[in-house]
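1st attempt posting a full record on here, be nice pls
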Amino acid sequence: MLSKVTQLVGRRVELAALEAVLGARVQNGPPAAAVIGEPGIGKSTLLAQALARMTDRRTVIAHGRASEFERQLPFGVVIDALDAYLGSLAPRRLSTLGEARGGVIGTIFPALDQLAAPEVGRPEASQLHGAVRALLTMLASEQRLVLVLDDLHWADQASVELVAHLLLHRRVEGATLLLAYRPAQASRLLRHAVEAACDRDACVEIALGPLSREEATALLDGTPDTDSIYRESGGNPFYLKQLSRSTPGPASEIETDPYGVPIAVMRALASELAELSGSTRLVVHAASVAGEPFEAELVSAIASVERAAVLDGLDDALGRGLMVTTAVPGRFEFRHPIVRRAVYASAPAAWLLGAHERAAKALETAGARPSVLAHHVELSARQGDEAAVDLLTTAGRETARVAPASAARWYGAALRLLPADAGADRSLALLAPLAASLTAAGQLIPAREVLEEVLRLLAPEQGALRARSLLAIALIERVLGQSGPGREPLAAALDESLDASSSTVATLELELAADRYFAGDWPQMQTHAESALSRSRELADASLTAAATAVLGLAEINLGQAPAARRRVGEAARLLDGIPDRELRLHLGAVHWVGWCEHHLERYRDVLRHYERGLALGRATGQRHLLIPTLLGVVITRAWLGELDAAGEDTEAAIQTAQLVGAEELIGLTFALRCWLAVRTGELPAAITAATACAATGPDAHGPHALLTHSWLGEAQIENGAPAAGRAAVLAAAGGPDLPSIEPCQRAYFAELLTRAALALHDRDEAERWATLADSSAAGLDLDGPRVWALRARAAILIADGAPADAGNIALESVKAAGSTHPMERERSRLLAGRALGAAGDRASIELLREAHIRLRQFGAHRFEAIAARELRAQGEHVAQPRRSGQSDGVLADLSGRELEVARLVAEHLTNREIAERLVLSPKTVEHHLEHIFDKLGLGSRGALARLVLAAEPGRRLEA
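the predicted structure (as tokens):
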């Protein structure tokens, strides 16, 4: 809850920016603001001041603050903000959510426990996010809602994921989201979500810096020796006020604690606490254990003193300014989180053990959930405390699906408290759910470490369990791009005396096949895949059979066995389509392999159909570690199909997921993906920046992720006019001049790229070698893409040889080869044909270039569109520039096909949501299209766009 407003000095610009967000109409202004800065810089004060100045008294302000000491409480900051208010609502209002969503909401908020439906089970993350969004929508439907979430750098992972969801999805009408956090301590996901929301004008970031010397003097209001205090504080408002209470130390060099707080400030706080009486000190120590905000009753139980004595101590602390009251009567909090930390740190260590134990007992008596008790139990229980082990295990089970990071914390704590003589079975009973929770939370490296501990505890005769653990480790390594290290243990497990009819054996064979895929060992991959397929068919396991069939198809296409691979992919797709969601959600690897095989066989619409299903199931079940490979396939597929806007959205989703997982390998890979897409949209400087950053912080020169990262960087360099550096990057990633690390069905793509690099370096002989490699790579594959790239390599050489007419004819062959399979590559080939024939003086080039210009613009391939326009102008043709005025003649021709559809529906007075439903898009995508339309046409409103459409298309009937 909000405490009383404290003095705000300076910050006029920042306050105006925050008031602009609060005062903006929900339809037009950004619905969120993020106030960021170091500890004590005044984030909370700025929020309180802006909220106090609001004039709309019908606004509901829900304020929550995350806490340093309770950061594992699932949805803690959201509960702090909304729980008391929800408890005051009439049941009639909550009933509008419906039974299903009400049941989900009841699993989060203690005040709504009665709504929870235990028999339904714990909800998935996507259900929780949808239910909370519906709740906020309901709350904001009658009164404006301002949701304030402070100190988010201490928020639990479930809360951060929810905040990211609210920032990155469509706005909640009538609601404003205000955030505050320290960037240096905030999670990657939170920082990325705020950055992405700011990029699309859905959030305003307000960074607070130090006060000026004049502002500091005004804040201290007559305090002597303000110059030395200012130097010691660095202009930080909280430090200024704290140091003004004591004599500052030397200012030659400011030492800080691990959180960045100056040691002088912590010394000043210690001096302040030393002045307290023994009884008040006991009360404030107990309050620091209770959490914030706290009530006198809990403090009384922790301190083991009467309530009257607690109230006396609180009055003393309030009078000294150590604590403040909140908007809820009877609740208190420390004047700043730094003060609470200093108070807690000053409490005797032995006393704290008993204090947390008393806190747990008091909360248990009050009916608190195990997940609320777990924090205190973890800090007070002794090894061998079976009751504590049971409670922490229960807390882990309670939170595993809604907040797996918190569950992992509680399982780990229970593990540490097991009796010293506990057997391996008891440890394994906790290690298994710990590994599962860490994996679900995206903490893959710690999960792998736990699984390795499981292997150490398993007896040799427990072959099946050892195999499952090895499989889990292998999957994590594969997701991280570290395939190979786990191959020998997998092979050894396969040789052990396992039941040959078990699904574990078939899965081991499949994983070994996957390992050989990433190693480029196609014959061994085929052998393992055939064995996995045979075993899975005997088991009648549809998911395993589909996966094995697809992996075998991948081996066959890379061995040049195209007809067999096509039969495999058809069979795998039919199997996958017949598996119900309830079964497939447990075997999402099948979706990945079938989609990836379809991608290699150029069945791109099937890829999207299957991968979209896999993404939905993966998000619903919290298997985020499996989302990134799937999103990678979706982005590349959409790019081949010319759906670059949608590919951009999926790229950002992949980056967001990688930030949550936190593995540098995956973050590097997703930024490399952004680079690869930027080459196609024409953002070459951004592509180079993204690729260089990911190559520096991501994988080294080895492994499947490194192959993509460094080869895509090379492509961006070649396209950006640095052919030598680009060629070197591609060859280093590809393993040498024969490109052995590149899949055979992809070699023609890179050979064509290297052909152009060699020609740019005026090395005709090298270009010929690359073009020959492209020819040989495409031969026998029976795939359209490799044929296109091989033909384009030949056309490029013919242009360099001074034979543009021949080059044009070869390029036209590549247009035909691309056909409907590769729309994006078809238009790039058409552009090349037009350029070549134009150089030969053939006027047929005009029509080719015009067609390419139109299609490339529709795709959003702005760089290639600009090249087509330049070629047309060079041949004396007029190409309209994007209009920036409201003129109607011909201006709609500058819109892409999708943008024109959106513009026409706006003219029919459809809302964004209605347009999204009509075109089967997300509302966010509609917003993006409108932004592009307004930018291209120089318009500022939907009404102006409607009038322009009417003027440009007078036959269109507009309904009032």
